[in-house]
Structure formats: C-alpha cells, structure tokens
Design a protein that fits this description.
By secondary structure, the protein is of the alpha/beta class. Helix content is 45%, strand content 14%. The protein has a single domain (46-247), classed as Rossmann fold (3-Layer(aba) Sandwich).
C-alpha cells in the first residue's frame, strides 16, 4: 500500500509541475501586480497591445496565444472590428474630408490583410505561431488564393464613386504583379489608379521607409493623400503622412 501511495504521489507531483507551466490546463495566472487572470485575459491583452503598437517587432505569436489568435481571426468579432474601421473611414469622408474633385484627391490602400486576406494561408501555417517562411508565403500569393477582406470592398467602391484616385501600395515584390492583379480582380477589386510594388532597388528598405517614399512621390506629383488604410503600422506611419490614417486589426504578424 505504501509503495502504491508513493508511486501515486510521485505521479501527482509530476503532473502538478507540468500543469503549473501550461496555460491550457491552469485556469488562472497572476500578473506582476497579483491580479488573477485567465489565458483568455492574457492573450486578449497581448492582442490589444499589438493593435495599440505597444508591442512591436515580434517574430511569432506567443505559443500560448496561437489558438486564441486563430479563433479571433476567424471570428465574428474580427469581422465586426474590421467593419467598424471601414465605417469610420466612410464617416470621415462624408463629414471631415474636403475633396477638391480635380483629379488629385488620393487614397492609399495596403493589400495583404487590407484588401486580400491571408487568413487562409495562416490558418494552415500556425496563425503566426511559426516563423514566417517567405518562400512559402510568396508561393501561396502566386496562386492567387487571397480572399477579399469584404468590408474593404465597400470602402474601395465608395471611393471610386467619389472620384478619388486609388493607389495600392504593397510590400509584395514586383514578380508577384500579375498574380496580384489577377487575385484582386477575381474578388472584385478593380478600377484603381496605380499598383505599386517593391522593385529590386527597394529590397533593402523596410516597409515603413518604402511606403513613406511612395507617399512623398505622389505628393510631389500634386496628389493630396486624403486617407490611407492598412493592417500594419508601417503602412501608415512615417512622413509625409496622409490627412487621416486608419488601421485594420491584424495580430498574426508584424512588419516593420
């Protein structure tokens, strides 16, 4: 009996130790201040601070939050958050944005996870929990499998109706141009003014520098950038800036 109890006690200790390091088993942890939190609290806080740009330069989503991020990116909440962003863009255009209607009013869209969703790719590749494989991602892009970020299409068509010039500025490389155009048109994005991708000379620039330089060129051509929307801070930060910038949610990856 004593021997059996000893074995049981040893197993109990091992399992208890394992549980202490596993968010999926423990129902609560504590913050530095002693506040009891669940795994959901922890991961929601992480996601929120990514969107607020307090958390930067992360390479992968924390492993304990991968399931949570995957659930969020395929949830109604993600769609509601995205729709709210688009509605705020349209509200701005109808209330605080003065258009000159001279062919020089411009709006900039990012592409990935702004117009074309890469959620189908990341669903099969760990929702950001795995280090990015650029070759794999570009192969997926070349197949034109991106789905429309549906509420962005509403804004896209609204801008066309207003006569605003639409510029698509993406960190995608030039060799993906044909596949990108085909994918965009396939999901009903068409009628833009220009599609700007990375040339070979842009390879060493980070996304923020590359996109800021494009904005500078457009302004030098007489365009007034009344708005810009993207899923990464690097798409909307830097000088010169647009009159208004809007960010869509995306905690799956970070692009500097």
């Amino acid at each position: 009996m004593a021997k059996k109890f000893g074995i049981f006690f040893t197993l109990f200790c091992i399992l208890s130790t394992s549980c202490l390091g596993d968010w999926n088993i423990l129902s609560q942890h504590k913050t530095n201040s002693g506040l009891k939190i669940s795994l959901k609290n922890y991961c929601e806080s992480w996601r929120m601070n990514v969107e607020l740009h307090n958390i930067r330069d992360y390479v992968v989503v924390p492993q304990e939050c991968v399931a949570y991020i995957g659930k969020y990116m395929t949830s109604t909440q993600y769609k509601v958050d995205s729709e709210r962003t688009i509605n705020e863009c349209i509200l701005y255009l109808s209330t605080n944005c003065i258009l000159e209607n001279d062919g020089k009013d411009a709006w900039i869209f990012d592409i990935d996870d702004t117009l074309l969703s890469s959620v189908p790719y990341y669903k099969k590749n760990g929702f950001g929990g795995n280090k990015l494989n650029v070759t794999s991602l570009e192969d997926w892009m070349s197949q034109g499998k991106g789905t429309a970020v549906e509420h962005s299409l509403k804004l896209f068509n609204h801008l066309k109706g207003l006569g605003v010039k639409i510029f698509l500025v993406s960190s995608r490389r030039e060799h993906l141009r044909s596949a990108t155009v085909d994918n965009l048109v396939k999901v009903d994005f068409y009628g833009w003014n220009s599609l700007i991708l990375r040339d070979q000379e842009d390879e060493c620039k980070n996304a923020q520098t590359f996109k800021a330089e494009i904005r500078s060129k457009l302004i030098s051509q007489g365009y007034r950038i009344v708005g810009i929307i993207g899923d990464q801070w690097s798409s909307i930060e830097g000088l010169p800036s647009a009159k208004r910038s809007f960010k869509l949610p995306n905690p799956m990856y970070y692009v500097a």
